[in-house]
Structures are given as C-alpha cells and as structure tokens.
Amino acid sequence: MAKADVTEYTLFLGCMIPLRHPQIEAAARKALSNVGVKVIDVDGFSCCPEPWNVKGASLEEWLAVAMRNLAIGEKTGRDMLVLCNGCYATLTEAARIARDGSDAKEAAAKKLSALNLSYKGKSRARHVASVLFDIGPSTVASSVKKPLAGMKVAVHYGCHLLRPADVTGFDDPFKPSKLEALVEALGAQTVRYSGYTNCCGRATRDSDASLRMANDKIESMKGAGAECVVTVCPACFEQFDLGQIEIKRLLGREHNLPVFHYLQLLALAQGEDASSLGLKRHHVNVEPALSRIKT
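and the corresponding structure tokens:
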C-alpha cells in the first residue's frame, strides 16, 4: 500500500488489554499496518475510565479522567484509536459532554487546568471497527493472504459499540451489519442468531445473571451453527472466553466455543502465524475453530 494511503492514529490501549489481554494488542500491531493504519504510542494515558461503575459513582470524576485522556490524545494532533467498546463509549460520550457543556464539564475542566491540560474537541476517539469499515471491507479483503474459508462465525457487537446510537454512531443498533461485512471480508461465513444484539452480561452486577446472559447467547450462537465467536471488545471477549469456564463450574453447562477478537482473525487471514497471536492464552481451546479453515 502506498505511503500516501497510511493514516496515523494515537493508540489508546486502556487498562484491560495491556494488563489482561496483551494478545489483542499484539494482533493490532501486526494487522493494522497491512490496511494502511499506523499506530503511534504516547505516554500518560490511564484507564478510560470504564463507563458503568466509575460513571455511576461520580459523573464529575469520570468525566475529568476521560477528558484528561482526550486532552493527552489531542496534544498529539491525531485522532485516538481504541480497541475496546468501553473505552470508545467513555471517550466518545465525554467528548460530547465537553462539547455541549454542563456543570460536570466545567468542574472537570477546572481539574484539568490544575494539570495544565485542556480539551478543545479538536480530536476524537475512533473504534478500530469503525476505522476498518471506513477503510472498506474490500481494502481489508485485499490484505488477506490466507482466507478463513470454512469458518462459521457468530459476531457479537457489544452494547457500548451500538448504544446509545446517537453517541456511538457506529451502526444501526437494532440491525447492525458492519462487523459481519468485516468478518466476511476475511473469507469466513457469518451466522445470524437470535439475540445477536443482546448484552453479553459483563456489566451486570449480579454474577449469576451475568453468566446466564452469556450462556443464553452462546447457546443461541451454537444453535445457529456457529463454530466460534468474534468480538471487538476485551471485556466481551473475557465474558465469553473465561465466562465459559465459570458457566461450566456454576451452571454445569459446557460449550467449548472458541472466542476471538476480530484483530486476531484479521492477522490470521493476513498470514500471521497463530503462535504469534497469543491464542494459547485463551481459556477455550481455539484449535477446533482453526481446523475448520479450508487450506
């Protein structure tokens, strides 16, 4: 791809990916350059912070931390690229509040001023799925060297990518299709299943209800013929991957449905060796899904 086609982004990893799922970061660094996306690291970022517990405890403190991250990103002169739905939701909503103004925004701005920082709204957070779709499924497909033909994939969007739609602006919150298009660009087959826009249950405070929500989605995926799950969020990834261990232990149901972040499938399709993508870190063995790929 010509140098002129390369777009630079400041990489915002948040906390969950570097601390618990570095395989997602590894996949991003391997795959994105092949579709014209260059990520640049900067120091100083913190947790986004996540958009349910912190925000519920204090809107002002949540907004101050989010605006601090946005201000650091803005100083680079580039938009921020995020690999997590929660980070995307927080940073996008915080940018909107900062733009529209409120008492919380004014209080947060004062906290930033004490750090010699300010957020002027000149840059924004972009979700990697949105960036890839804007580049185009055809461009993504042109980077594929080893198509994932034979792999049947259930797509999980996740709440914070789709809702509230007037904030996230990614896709139709009731009938989304962009992630399916990106998966199909890799040569895989997507399967639609009942409840495909439902929450995975990760943010639910009731642990039993959380696992039952995940279990219901997994059963629906398998019932539709899916052989693996793809997400674009580390929290959703963990809910389905580690969650299956908890579902077996607490609910007595065993699924063995492999789970991937989309960037891992993208890197695989681009010809990256599976051993370089941290797939052995997954709690559910991914080999049955990989073995379905036609060579």
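(Above: one complete record from the training split.) Strands lie at 7-12, 37-40, 80-82, 125-127, 152-155, 189-190, 228-231, 259-261.
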